[in-house]
Design goal:
The complex is a heterotetramer. By secondary structure, chain A is mainly α. Chain A has twelve helices and two strands. In chain A, a hairpin with a 2-residue loop joins strand 1 and strand 2. Chain A starts with a helix and ends in a 13-residue tail after the last helix. By secondary structure, chain B is of the alpha/beta class. In chain B, the strands form five sheets. Chain B has a five-stranded parallel sheet, sandwiched between helices. In chain B, strand 15 and strand 16 form a beta hairpin. Chain B starts with a helix and ends in a 14-residue tail after the last strand. By secondary structure, chain C is mainly alpha-helical. Chain C has a two-stranded antiparallel ribbon with strand order 1-2. Chain C is globular. Classes of the chains: A mainly alpha, B alpha/beta, C mainly alpha, D alpha/beta. Chains in contact: A-B, A-C, A-D, B-C, C-D.
Chain lengths: ~300, ~400, ~300, ~240
């Protein structure tokens, strides 16, 4: 039972690393809390559902489509909202409200177009595609969809890693994360780079939506709020403002949830939050964060 | 001067007295039915479905010239006043009050479920207006000192598993696993089932609560399997049931018996989300339209209702649509039989036809406190037939249509 | 001089609000709306103390509200306290939770907001847990139907609102308020001005949680039947934050105006065009965030009109 | 005047402050005499500002002691240190930007001094000393950076300090402003305030100090007059970056 919970938790955690990724990326670059984060995950799920039922697309085909669609969407959204926000006195707090509004609007629009329903793509879609329904790891049997999701998450993490550390754009992005003002002075097109990072963040969220059916069950219009809250937990557990720390946060979250479900199922929900408070008080910058100097 | 003031007083009394008489005599132009629904938030799906059912009833009675009101000896059209509470109890409080104090509705109908109904209960009591509770089955609502509530559709959730328990005992199934979501609705079922089975000496090998927003049951299923039970009972909200059944299918695990709540209520939704295979040989509480009540003495039978509802909305009805419509029927019968047009008279009228009225939702019977104690929910099993599923009622013997396929192949 | 004037104006406004809410039920008898409006106003003022003056955004402010509701309810159910005392117990209960959460104040900005959110969620899941059914009634919720009294609880709510306003007035026009504002501006500079930062901010935190707890207590009394989700709903936090920011932080009038305008608008569209409820409300918030980012009162401030 | 005529107001003993593996203060010991102005110089990263941060309680030290007026004050909270009579200014001024000039001073006058009397008087004294009386109702954020530096100083003065730590106040000032600040600091000395002035500009130090301490790599390497310092080999090597 323990080994099952641990291995399952790691796979589950990889997925939650992806769930938190976009929120952390946007926080790192803009110092803004995207309260609509979970709603973009929901949008990704609805896109997947829609393409599946209209054209029979497998979620694996939806992945590149949703990345492109939401990258562009996020890029444009940045220009509509963010420059204006940055002029205000306290962009960090104002963004909080703005994105709350965005989240309301997204939910309302989805309800107007799709109605208020739970939706799913068949959970056995990968089993049919690969003609195998389960796989065994160290004597524990898991659904094949978990393997697909885990691989997809790892690929996404590698791509984000490459984007961050092996591209010029990533270098500029990291410069902005370190110090927006200095980046501006040193001639980086801060708005463009941030807009791309914003797009990547939204795209990562939508990707979590595409994969969501296999890890968190059916999708529905109001699912966003819970996911945003969980994402907060994950990114702080990892390192706020450091996207790759999110993976660690996700893994801790995943393993903790699975262990709790095994041993104290009714307390499952409390643990991540207590863990978060504990971590934040001991090491506010997150488990992976660097120590920050005051003054 | 004294004469003058006497005249004023007389005139005043006259006007007051006359208007009082006029008020009680004159029939209202409309019967105002007030209700709330949630277009967004966690309760939106079931709430809008019930609302649609109620709307259908209004549409249907108005097409016949309104509802017959015995107190005025004539048909009066129904006007529906409805607001959106967005699944928020704080908003619902305000809006229920709006219906009572601003719109002065004649009939107050609650929103879906216990959470959104809860805030209406004390409001209705203090404003002395009868609350037609659609599916709010919270046991705390029904108290001897409150005549202003009637539960129209489902029995209180603690009574739901009565037949399920009997079924398990009669089939001599031992080693039961129960996993339930920690909310009012599911926990009260789990507690009832647990106690009944324990009393009958059935072994319960797994009995755990999970948070209501649990969306992944893979590990839990694995842990249940480790206890090697003969039956797995999962009490949850629709989301829980969907996740549970999806995870069960993709895990490749097999159990002799699997019971979930919502396939019997929201069959289409569950089928669309989890597929035919995941439901095969599964058990549930069947409700209309899976249960076909055609011999009714109030409103339409299920066949006719399905036809009419489809004409009206373009969709085949689910259980919640029926629950919404059923409330309409109870209101209709109340107005048809109440001698006076006031709230306590309504309640008295309801007591009068309680236990006698049979609708497409089954027998309508309430106790003194207004809680529903009508027909018990039977136990049904889905068996594959062609590409689809067939539902067999397997318990109680009086309603049985086929023998349970146990263990599941 | 400026301060004296401010206090007088502030108390005048408080009196006006009291008179208004005493008479409003005669004109508009949807008292639930009026009650909720007062509730949000009081919560907004409470949040203003910790956010507007001290700069800590308590994302999980609803945790205190819920703690207050449950403390009051349990005081009634188990200790058979009269409702009025129970409301006070609600305030004290939330205050004690506030004391437990004091270490969170070491954090700043988003860290604090998120940690506070987590704390309130943890509280919610603990209260709602079936294992604590014997104490909190777990997921079954609370029923106080036998002491339900919407008239008296209405006036109790009004007095809590008045209390929260007076508290804010005395903070805004005192050296203590100045100290809080200093903490908000820069904690290091504030401590070098001799301010005992941990102590002063804890006092503000305590006051803020106390007001939320009182409000929660009277809310429990007013609705009488409620579930854990009802009083720990994150929506309450978000609403209050949006109201305060919309009005203007760090003032007496801002949170009142924010609550009045937005909550009335919210109910207005809820009643007039329910089908576009969420959409209109969401759009309104976006527009306001983009075009009046510093709150309604900033428009007056720009024209040199100082608002208490 | 001999060094110990008035006794040391501040004694620093073997102070160590680490950031990770980097020792910003590496066992520095130092005494500041009552009523004097002592200059503190050294190359970038030599630990001058860190020393001020530790003495004023902004940073906590890892080892060593700070003794003020014979009382140990190592690692106690800033506000308590302020109450004991130590205050400071910042290299990059940190006034409370959203508050007015007067409010900045007022809050320090109310909370900063042990003696609660004569608050209004102290506010007026501070305002007139730093010469910002006319700007008293202006928000601090609207001041020039020089005015903000003065306000930082005014905030410190309002707390009635016995020891004032001044961190690079001269950087970026015009000659005229330099002269004004030098006079102001000398005026404070007249009033009996002891000062420790961190500065890069030797000319400025020469104008006001009685003595200078040169630091390098977290340690004191020289103590004496500026003239002596300019002849000291180690000091020259350090400053030339050897």
């Amino acid at each position: 039972m323990l080994s099952y919970a641990l291995i399952g938790g790691i796979m589950y955690g990889l997925y939650f690393g992806l769930v938190g990724m976009g929120l952390n990326l946007i926080f790192g670059v803009m110092r803004m809390i995207n309260l609509a984060h979970g709603d973009f995950i929901m949008l990704g799920a609805f896109l997947t559902y829609w393409l599946y039922y209209l054209f029979g697309f497998n979620p694996l085909i939806v992945i590149p489509i949703s990345i492109v669609v939401f990258l562009v969407f996020g890029f444009l959204m940045y220009y509509v909202f963010v420059p204006k926000l940055l002029h205000s006195k306290d962009p960090e707090m104002l963004s909080f409200i703005l994105f709350f509004g965005v989240s309301q609007v997204i939910e309302a629009i989805i309800i107007l177009f799709f109605g208020n329903n739970q939706i799913s793509v068949p959970s056995t879609i990968f089993a049919k595609l690969f003609n195998v329904s389960t796989f065994t790891l160290f004597g524990n049997t898991f659904p094949i969809s978990w393997l697909v999701v885990s691989v997809a998450c790892i690929v996404a993490f590698v791509l984000i890693y490459v984007y961050f550390f092996y591209t010029k754009l990533g270098y500029a992005t990291r410069a902005i994360m370190a110090n927006r003002h200095e980046a501006l002075v040193s001639g980086i097109d801060v708005n463009k780079v941030s807009a791309i990072a914003f797009g990547v963040g939204i795209a990562a969220a939508s990707l979590a939506g595409v994969m969501g059916f296999f890890m968190i069950g059916a999708a529905f219009p109001s699912m966003g709020t819970d996911l945003t809250t969980i994402s907060f937990t994950i990114i702080v557990l990892g390192a706020l403002g450091n996207p790759l720390g999110t993976v660690i946060g996700g893994l801790i979250y995943g393993v903790a949830i699975m262990l709790m479900q095994t041993y104290f199922s009714s307390w499952t929900n409390v643990l991540p939050y207590l863990l978060l408070i504990f971590v934040i008080l001991i090491k506010p910058e997150g488990l992976l964060g660097k120590a920050v100097r005051n003054v | 001067m004294r004469k003058f003031s006497a005249l004023i007083v007389f005139l005043f009394l006259f006007v007051v007295g006359f208007s009082g008489i006029a008020m009680s005599k004159e029939a209202p132009k409309y019967i105002k039915v007030g209700t709330l629904y949630a277009s967004s938030g966690p309760f939106a799906k079931p709430s809008t479905a019930e609302f649609k059912g109620l709307n259908f009833w209004v549409h249907y009675v108005n097409s016949k010239g309104g509802v017959y009101v015995k107190a005025f000896h004539k048909r009066i059209p129904v006007k529906l006043v409805a607001y959106d509470d967005q699944s928020s109890t704080a908003t619902a409080t305000t809006l229920y009050n709006q219906l009572i104090t601003q719109d002065h509705v004649n009939i107050l109908v609650a929103d879906f479920g216990s959470v959104l109904t809860s805030v209406a209960v004390p409001l209705a009591k203090v404003h002395k207006i009868l609350l037609f509770d659609v599916t709010g089955t919270g046991s705390k609502f029904f108290t001897p000192d409150n005549p202003y509530i009637v539960l129209c559709s489902l029995p209180t959730s603690g009574r739901w598993p009565y037949t399920l328990a009997d079924f398990i005992i009669s089939e001599k199934i031992n080693r039961i696993a129960i996993v339930y979501s920690s909310n009012d609705f599911d926990q009260s079922q789990a507690v009832t089932l647990h106690n009944k089975l324990k009393k009958a000496g059935v072994d319960i090998v797994y009995y755990h609560a999970v948070p209501s927003n649990t969306s992944n049951y893979s590990i839990i299923l694995h842990n249940i399997k480790a206890k090697n039970p003969n039956a797995v009972i999962e009490f949850g909200y629709p989301n829980n049931d969907i996740a549970f059944l999806q995870n069960l299918e993709s895990s490749g695990l097999k159990f002799n018996m699997v019971f979930t709540v919502f396939p019997g209520q929201l069959f289409k939704l569950l089928k669309a989300n989890v597929g035919v295979k995941a439901l095969s040989y599964g058990y549930t509480y069947p409700t209309p339209p899976l249960l076909r009540y055609n011999k009714v003495n109030l409103g339409m039978g299920i066949d006719k209702f399905e036809k009419e509802f489809e004409k009206y909305s373009g969709k085949t009805p689910n259980f919640l649509n029926i629950a919404g419509y059923n409330v309409g029927l109870i209101i209709q019968k109340t107005l048809e039989t109440s001698k006076k047009f006031n709230q306590l008279a309504f309640r008295k009228a309801i007591a009068g036809f309680s236990g006698k009225a049979f609708t497409l939702d089954g027998l309508f019977k309430v106790n003194k406190e207004g809680a529903q104690i009508g027909e018990m929910l039977p136990v049904a099993q889905f068996v594959p037939r062609g590409q689809g599923l067939k539902m067999n009622i397997v318990y109680p013997p009086s309603m049985k249509t086929a023998k349970a396929v146990y263990p599941a192949p | 001089m400026y301060r004296k004037k401010g206090i007088i104006y502030g108390l005048g406004i408080t009196l006006l609000v009291i008179v208004l809410f005493i008479f409003l039920p005669n004109i508009y008898n949807n008292t639930s709306f009026l009650f909720n409006l007062m509730l949000y106003m009081a919560l907004a003022e409470g949040l203003n103390i910790i956010y507007g003056f001290t700069g800590y955004l308590p994302f999980g402010y609803v945790g205190f509200f819920g703690a207050g509701a449950y403390s009051a309810a349990l005081a009634i159910l188990f200790l058979h306290f009269p409702p009025l005392i129970a409301v006070l117990v609600g305030g004290i209960g939330a205050f004690l939770i506030g004391i437990i959460f004091i270490p969170l104040l070491k954090l700043s900005g988003a860290y604090f907001a998120i940690a506070n959110l987590a704390a309130s969620q943890a509280l919610y899941y603990i209260v709602a847990n079936p294992n604590l059914e014997k104490i909190t009634q777990g997921p079954y919720g609370i029923s106080l139907a036998n002491i339900y009294n919407p008239q008296v609880s209405y006036y109790v709510m009004l007095s809590i609102l008045a209390f929260s306003m007076v508290t804010v007035i005395f903070i805004r026009f005192s050296d203590y308020g100045l100290a809080l504002l200093s903490i908000k501006e820069d904690r290091v500079s504030a401590s070098l001005a001799g301010i005992n930062v941990p102590r002063e901010r804890s006092i503000a935190w305590g006051l803020s949680s106390f007001i939320a707890g009182l409000s929660g207590g009277v809310y429990a009394w007013y609705v009488a039947v409620f579930y854990p989700t009802t009083v720990f709903s994150l929506e309450i936090s978000v609403f209050v934050i949006v109201f305060v920011l919309f009005g203007g932080i760090g003032t007496l009038v801002g949170p009142l105006i924010g609550s009045l305008v937005l909550y009335s608008f919210y109910n207005f569209i809820g009643i007039s065009t329910p089908q576009y409820f969420q959409l209109s409300y969401g759009l309104l918030i976006i527009i306001f965030a983009l075009f009046i980012p510093n709150g309604i009162l900033s428009i007056f401030e720009k024209r040199g009109i100082h608002v208490p | 005047m001999s060094r110990n005529e008035n006794g040391a107001i501040l004694k620093i003993e073997d102070l160590i402050k680490k950031f990770g593996n980097f020792r910003a203060l590496d066992g520095v010991s130092l005494e500041v005499d009552k009523g004097k102005i002592i200059g503190l110089a050294g190359p970038n990263g030599s630990g001058k500002t860190t020393l001020i941060n530790v003495v004023s309680g902004v940073y906590k030290s890892n080892d060593g002691r700070v003794i003020f007026n014979g009382e140990e004050i190592t690692n106690i909270d800033s506000h308590k240190i302020v109450h004991k009579g130590i205050n400071r200014t910042f290299q990059i001024p940190k006034p409370l930007l959203g508050l007015t000039v007067e409010e900045n001073i007022r809050v320090a006058a109310v909370y900063g001094a042990k003696d609660k009397g004569k608050i209004e008087e102290r506010i007026e004294y501070s305002l007139s000393t730093i010469g910002l009386v006319d700007l008293r109702f202006k928000k601090a954020e609207s001041l020039t950076s020089t005015q903000q530096k003065l306000l930082d100083l005014g905030r410190a003065l309002a707390t009635n300090p016995k020891l004032l730590l001044v961190d690079e106040i001269a950087a970026g000032l015009t000659q005229k402003e330099l002269k004004m600040i030098a006079d102001m600091l000398l005026g404070l000395k007249e009033k009996g305030v002891t000062l420790m002035v961190v500065e890069h500009l030797m000319g400025f130090l020469d104008m006001i100090t009685d003595e200078v301490v040169i630091m390098n790599a977290g340690k004191e390497i020289f103590r004496g007059s500026i003239r002596e310092a300019s002849n000291n080999e180690e000091v020259i090597r350090v400053f030339l970056g050897g």
